[in-house]
Design a protein that fits this description.
619 residues, alpha/beta, 24 strands
Length: 619
């Protein structure tokens, strides 16, 4: 007879239905991918034809470049061109850039310039790889998404060095202009109306945090470190949950996604973004910048005219490289390469500053951390794409602490960032080049110990290796560990270990971590932080903090004069050329460079448009 619809299926039928569902989803995936490829082929930014002239040409579609692109094109009156060497992640189907948990996989890939340094004598002759975003959105597309402003004391220091007009109050105005804060803490530092403001960049907490990250945020009390609800507010010091740039749907809030998303590009016919194109030099008539020379992804050369200005936003390596290729830089270096000297500016490419960090591994007693090698669990995938939450939303650095290693200091000198990341294999840490001798445990937490602008920072240089546009620059940060740095590192490492191993009743870590860590026992046995044992271990283990600044300083540094004017950001000695990126900052700040780059972009846009600075009347 006819089988009832409630009759149980045979095993063969169950397998048949399962196979049918799997095949359906596979076919649907490839159909969607094919449709996406057709859409991209019709709308891709790299294939859009170039006009012969624009009002403003922005070289570099990184963090500051995207801010400028949005602000300068907002009125619709000016024709704006943005030129970016990398691709647009909106052209990639299910791009890893947008999903926070894939951050670790983006470094050293096609989205990263991956500048190789010469052997560093101060770091046991190691060759270090320094990351910088090669993609529309720049480093904001490959960074850890943490939102950290510099300390108020940094702005005071810069003003003392000669950066007129860079006071903290003015900077806060531009920080607030960009951000849309979802923090619960009410503060004049975020200009909140209820719980949000009106900028395009979301600032929220890393939610929902791993329980270990929560423990870290509240365990500082056990070692005398106070809690801090908002380290971007009136005080930076203390333990806190990390503020991140992540949209409410769980995707990365990179600069391009916030300031020039596809919706903006479709509406603004006066804004043209050209990706996969390399600017080889700035074109000059006398000492007036009149345009750029670029090569597209097919190798064809174009000369594009700038009717008003050229604005360089290529970063601490790309901007000085382009200036030197255009004849602006140290006279002797340019003459060695037979590059005609347009304007002698010794500060171009000099004063390269970057910080150092130590990855401290502390073993956990069981599997308590995220494992980035195992992110495709169905429940986590569904949770992320349906609700924008779960492990796939994490930036791994969900809590932190700004601390003072010496009570006499006016501001924190060390940043401790707590990472709930497990699965410590070479592939996972490829982007960080973590030395194998400290990567010991499969299940562990990592505490990144970062020095914040030490009194005697490492200062290096960026120089050209040849005259061809494809020649890689020589990036030498001249890293070194002096006595101050050694004392700070050792003190901070001891504090970090104490935070997770203290036997205080309130310490929830004590049953979760074994106490075993990546510091050799011979170092723990040595009390003197200046001992050869500690120095040798740190020199072989520290990593760059990836906060390169200083190569086009806006104030005099040492014997070199300022490269740009601090008020207008115009390049000294020439006309119609500005710099708007972190290369203008004279020293490493006590915070991340991404928030700072956005602030610089906002400030530069007001300068170009003639908008009066806050608290100052327009003349």
């Amino acid at each position: 007879g006819i089988r009832s619809r409630y009759h149980p299926h045979t095993m063969f039928e169950e397998l048949y239905y399962l196979a049918t569902v799997v095949v359906f989803f596979i076919v649907a995936f490839f159909v969607c991918k094919f449709a996406w490829s057709i859409w991209v082929s019709l709308t891709t930014l790299s294939k859009t034809p170039l006009a012969k002239a624009y009002d403003y040409i922005i070289v570099g579609g990184g963090t500051a470049g995207c801010v400028l692109a949005n602000r300068l094109s907002a009125s619709g009156d000016a024709q704006v061109l943005v030129v970016e060497a990398g691709h647009d992640d909106n052209e990639t189907f299910l791009s890893k850039v947008r999903i926070p948990i894939f951050t670790w996989h983006l470094m050293r890939m096609g989205t990263d310039w991956g500048f190789e340094t010469p052997p560093q004598p101060g770091l046991a002759d190691r060759e270090i790889t320094m990351s910088a975003g090669k993609i529309l959105g720049g480093t904001s597309c490959i960074s850890w998404m943490t939102y950290m402003r510099p300390n108020k004391a940094d702005f005071d220091k810069w003003e003392e060095m000669g950066c007129k007009g860079w006071d903290h109050k003015t900077a806060v105005h531009y920080f607030k202009k960009s951000e849309c804060s979802f923090l619960a803490e009410r503060s004049e530092y975020h200009d909140q109306d209820n719980t949000s403001s009106t900028g395009p960049v979301p600032v929220t907490l890393a939610l929902p945090p791993n329980p270990l990250a929560m423990y870290w945020a509240f365990t500082g009390d056990n070692v005398g470190i106070k809690r801090n609800l908002d380290y971007n507010g009136p005080s930076q010091e203390g333990c806190a949950l990390t503020q991140v740039n992540v949209f409410m749907n769980g995707s990365r809030a990179s600069s391009n996604a916030c300031f020039i998303p596809p919706s903006v590009l479709r509406k603004r016919k006066n804004l043209h973004v050209k990706t996969e194109a390399n600017v080889t030099s700035v074109a000059f008539e006398g000492k007036k910048a009149v345009g750029i020379i670029l090569k597209d992804n097919k190798g064809k050369e174009h000369i594009i005219v700038a009717r008003k200005e050229v604005i360089l936003c290529a970063g601490a390596v790309g901007t000085p490289k382009l200036l030197m290729r255009s004849g602006i830089g140290p006279e002797e270096h340019l003459q060695q390469l037979d590059i005609p000297v347009l304007y002698k500016s010794p500060g171009v490419g000099s004063n390269l500053c970057d910080g150092l960090m130590y990855p401290l591994f502390v073993q956990t007693r069981r599997a308590l951390t995220y494992d980035p090698r195992n992110v495709w669990k169905m429940k986590d995938v569904v949770r992320y794409f349906m609700k924008g939450s779960g492990p796939m939303r994490t930036n791994f650095l969900e809590s932190l602490a700004f601390i003072k290693t010496n009570k006499g200091r006016k501001k924190p000198d060390v940043l401790l960032q707590f990472s709930c990341a497990g699965g410590f294999d070479p592939t996972f840490f490829y982007g960080l080049d973590v030395p194998k001798h400290i990567r010991r445990y499969r299940e562990a937490v990592v505490i990144f110990v970062t020095l914040l602008n030490p009194p005697t920072p490492s200062t290096g240089s960026v120089r050209l290796s040849g005259t061809a546009s494809s020649d890689k620059p020589i990036v030498d940060p001249a890293y070194r560990l002096d006595e101050t740095s050694l004392r700070a590192f050792v003190s901070a490492i001891r504090t970090a270990v104490k935070m997770v191993t203290t036997t205080e009743p309130e310490n929830r870590f004590k049953t979760l971590v074994s106490g075993a860590n990546s510091v050799p026992q011979v170092c723990w046995d040595e009390e003197d932080p200046l001992s050869a044992t500690w120095r040798e271990h740190l020199e072989k283990s520290v990593l760059p903090s990836q906060m390169m600044v200083g190569t086009c300083s806006m104030c005099p540094v040492g014997p070199n004069e300022a490269v740009v004017d601090p008020e207008t950001l115009k390049v000294n000695g020439v006309d119609q050329l500005r710099v708007a990126d972190c290369s203008i900052i004279p020293s490493v700040a006590s915070g991340g460079t991404n928030a700072t780059a956005m602030m610089i972009g906002e400030r530069a846009a007001d300068n170009v448009l003639g908008v009066a600075k806050p608290n100052k009347k327009k003349k």
